[in-house]
Amino acid sequence: MPDIKHFDPDTVLEHVVHLFWERGTEATGIAEVVATTGVSRSSLYATFGGKERLHAAALRRYLERQSQPVFDALAADERGLPAIAGFFERLVAARCTGEHARWGCLVTNTHTGATREIAEIRQILDAHHTALRGAMSAALQTAREHGQLRPGLAVETAAESLALLAYGVNLRSRAGAQAGELLAGVRAVLEGFTRTQEK
Amino acid sequence: MPDIKHFDPDTVLEHVVHLFWERGTEATGIAEVVATTGVSRSSLYATFGGKERLHAAALRRYLERQSQPVFDALAADERGLPAIAGFFERLVAARCTGEHARWGCLVTNTHTGATREIAEIRQILDAHHTALRGAMSAALQTAREHGQLRPGLAVETAAESLALLAYGVNLRSRAGAQAGELLAGVRAVLEGFTRTQEK
DNA sequence: CCTATCTTGGAATGGTCGTTCCAAGATAGG
DNA sequence: CCTATCTTGGAACGACCATTCCAAGATAGG
């Protein structure tokens, strides 16, 4: 008997991710979401239930669609260290050039906001961190099996290092850091993880 | 002939740094500044000239009083790598425990805000980065002279690595990361920079 | 002590925020 | 086609925002 939705919630969420990512979640008003999506306040609130919930939904979608595929590819990559180097090369390129240049990472950006204290959002930040570190860990484990790693390097802690490094890249890129400097900084760390086999 | 200020601008700025640092700049209203400092809106605007300028002044004071002394001590430290390790140990401790636990770093927090686009503020972010990387660079150069560094490690790019790592620590600590994990991540990078001298 | 000059308290302004509400519209089972 | 039920557009709400303004207060040179 009832009416059905006149819009696709998933498409709306896609626009919301775009807005929150580029302009910042706290700096984006509901009015802007309404203007961009064409969906009225009523429908927005009936579907997502307020700005905090909308932010959480956008974060989940970002993690699922933007981050996770890249993490999965990294974890499944059989090359080891070159896979990690490639991950960072694509990361720096995506953060400094192209469609999303200077946007940073929606999850990283959320870390410093006031919403970080909300349990629902905090959990997503932690899930992102776990996923990122897990992918790094898997790639490092592969590298280990290929004999690419410096002896004595603990895979789990090295994975944490690389995750922290990625946050640094995300952060500085949003403030205008140059791709070359970011990449050089990343490579120095990776070289430190590499087995030394001079001539 | 004229009247003089009935308050100390520097003391006010100290309170403002505290507010912006702990609660976030965008989340802190002028009303809160008025309530905390006891200084009226008129005086605030006459002295600092609006919220953006106040934010910039607070950032400058933070950089000058909080960051720079630590950077200077690091740059002047004669120990080399142990000085850098000590820097990070104190950083993690300050970010995870004590008076400023979970506050992160005011400069790091500003990177993701909407104010990052204002020229005056962007310059302070860059100045902070240059100072941080410079201090790392000086400490690494000392380490080099002490023969502590892995051969082939470029001091300047390694300094960038460590700066990015510090941003990662600042970011994740604000979201509740555990001190032990942060420290382990840092140490893995430092070990990668160290000359290998097994037994 | 007077007065020119700056400072101060606090009210007022116009704007934007997230959220709520309700009448009008759309839908689909009966 | 009717009607129960959900959705939708858009007005309205109160709270807060940064900023401005002005009369009253404080100051120190003359």
Q: Which tags fit this structure?
A:
DNA-binding, about 200 residues
Topology:
The structure is a homodimer of 199-residue chains.
Chain A (H helix, E strand, L loop, with lengths): L8 H15 L6 H8 L3 H8 L2 H26 L4 H16 L9 H5 L8 H27 L9 H20 L4 H15 L6
The structure holds a DNA duplex (30 and 30 nucleotides).
Describe the structure in your own words.
2 copies of one chain form a homodimer. Chain A is mainly alpha-helical and 199 residues long. In chain A, 70% of the residues lie in helices and 0% in strands. Chain A has 9 helices and no strands. Chain A has helices spanning 9-23, 30-37, 41-48, 51-76, 81-96, 106-110, 119-145, 155-174, 179-193. In chain A, helix 1 (9-23) packs across helix 2 (30-37) and helix 5 runs parallel beside helix 8 (155-174). The N and C termini of chain A lie far apart (77 Å). The mean pLDDT of chain A is 97. The interface between A and B is large, with 50 and 49 residues. The first copy, chain A, binds a DNA duplex (30 and 30 nucleotides) through residues 1-6, 29-31, 39-43, 45-46, 50-51.
